[in-house]
Amino acid sequence: MKTDARNFAATKEVLVPLLRQMLLVRRVEERLSADFHAGKLPGGVHLYIGQEAVAVGVCAHLRDSDTITSTHRGHGHFIAKGGSPRAMMAEIWGKRSGICRGMGGSMHVADVSKGILGANGIVAAGLAITCGAAYAVTLDRSDRVAVAFFGDGAANQGTLMETLNVATLWNLPMIFVCENNRFSEFSPTSTVTAGDIVDRARAFKIPCASVDGNDVLAVHGAAGAAIERARKGGGPSFIEAHTYRLHGHLEAEKSFLKSAYRESAEVEEWRGRDPIALFKTYLRGEGILDEREVDALEREIAAIVEDAAQFAEAGEPADPNLVFEVMFHEQRA
Amino acid sequence: MAKKRYIQAINDALTEEMARDPKIILFGEDVEISMFGDTLGLLERFGPGRIRNTPICEATLTGMAVGAAASGYRVVLHMMFSNFIYTGFDAIANQMAKLRLMTGGQMSMPITILAGYGGGRSSAAQHSDTPHPLLMNLGGVNVVVPASPADAKGLLKTVLRGKNPTFFLEAGGRGAETAEVPDEDYTIPLGKVSVLRPGRDVTVVAIGTMVKHALAAIPELEAKGIDPEVIDIRTLVPLDEDGIIASVQKTGRLVVVDEARDRCSAASHICAVVADKAFSALKAPPKRVTVPNVAMPYAPASEKNVLPNPAKIAAAAAALVGR
Ligand SMILES: Cc1ncc(C[n+]2csc(CCOP(=O)(O)OP(=O)(O)O)c2C)c(N)n1
Questions:
Q1: B94 and B208 fall within a common domain
Q2: In chain A, positions 161-220, which contact chain B (CB-CB < 8 Å)?
Q3: Are residues B198 and B176 in the same domain?
Q4: B201 and B177 part of one domain
Q5: Cis omega before residue A317 (within 30°)?
Q6: Low-confidence residues of chain A, pLDDT below 70?
């Protein structure tokens, strides 16, 4: 594993939470996958399985007051930024106790109190929103930062160029985190994307990094530098994290696609580079965690996930009339 | 005649017209693998020049459609979900809809935009919109909302042979519904309603996805001794005002069912036209059954609460008749 733990004090107190958060994201989503295929969820889900190191490596540096925007594949960012698994799962079940009271669902999980400005169903919409949030930080003269997570597919929307320009010109504390998971829906990235995405940002002469997105320490190192720089008024940075989506674009895809868009051998190859397995191996190798401690962590996470899933399933359905109260603020629709 | 799925009828129209006219090209995000099935097999049949996956860049795709059309091609642009029309809206509203006029008629604009619309499947607010009202308001684009496989095929063939930008809006979630489709090569003119059930007491005009619900409301109305006339609007621009008015002249009552939000909906426009042009025939105020002015919520019961359904339609029609 090409990790560089030397970039920061690689103490157990820093490293174990990274594993813990990656496991939490993974196990929550495995449960969502099972619940989806059992026909229990009202809507579709886009799972983050395989990409956990990116959200976790970045969000480990963030405070509640820092903001993030996310994508249609947003569960990992939500949890990594401190969102509640209970409230997220209840949302995906369409329940009153959901974080958005059942109004948004999987593609729109948001917790403003934690700086999670939301997953988003419009590809690349988060970039401009983050740019605005970063502008607000400068008006507040604060050391907060704003992070935009977006996909390689999203990088092909013109708004990337536009937000890079504004963020650079105005020296905004914005961190662009492009998760290149090799697919834009069902199109391999190489078939719809010219050049290297990170080079688009290099044109603005801001600090750029291209990292192994399956290596949580590589992500953590690059993000730490970018976030610290932004907090100190050093302006925007760009990180392209190379990773792989192990599940489908959405869980339902096998039910409607008539042909395959990738080789199962390729998926298997990437399964061999599972970010969680890699990190576990690293921690064991460094003598930071032993088998028994990993098992204990797994049990703790399993209990959290079971509790969240039961909470979601047992919850009351969303209030059908809430729409009229929350469409406007303090004004009935 | 043969039974065909709605999505298959669209696929057949595209295949037949592309075979007939080598100037038709089709592009959009993931049109090669085809998420909805409407563009399935076109790549294999017509090759990678005429059928093309694009990057995600709607603002550019709509502009490209204008440029390719101005260069002599007939463009079919697939926008996937209707909400992504918003992402590509500038070239639609500022170029596609207006260039014919601004160039004094020098350009024709043979562009067909495909997109799936509508809610009811917990796809949440950014994948469930029914955006035809804002398209109708642009002025320079046609808006086609087929409800049946036969209409989908016949209308799409007309559109693909036309010279004006046209939104061909596919009823979301209805792709698998089957009905008879004629075998021969046929077209259906734009701007002609289809009377699905003649009746004497109340005219129920239904738009796209709502046709199915309007038909499903018939038994409840019949049980109350009401004889409804159910009309499928088929196209919103051009609008068959005469067809609607002729029905209202007969029944004296009008209900319009629309999955768009109520404010400035197609339903409100149709009611205004009837109030204006057939006022003396009306025995009761025209009534709209629409979605309230809210975004589509995610949770199933919340979504159901705001969507029109057969019971709401029957209640509105019965109230007009006074039963
Ligand atoms: C504006 C817009 N266009 C198209 C879509 C449909 N769509 C949803 S996800 C997606 C692919 C996104 O790819 P990428 O940004 O790489 O994210 P990933 O799915 O790989 O996480 C597309 C085209 C959308 N949601 N929004």
A1: no
A2: 184-187, 191-193
A3: no
A4: no
A5: no
A6: 1-9
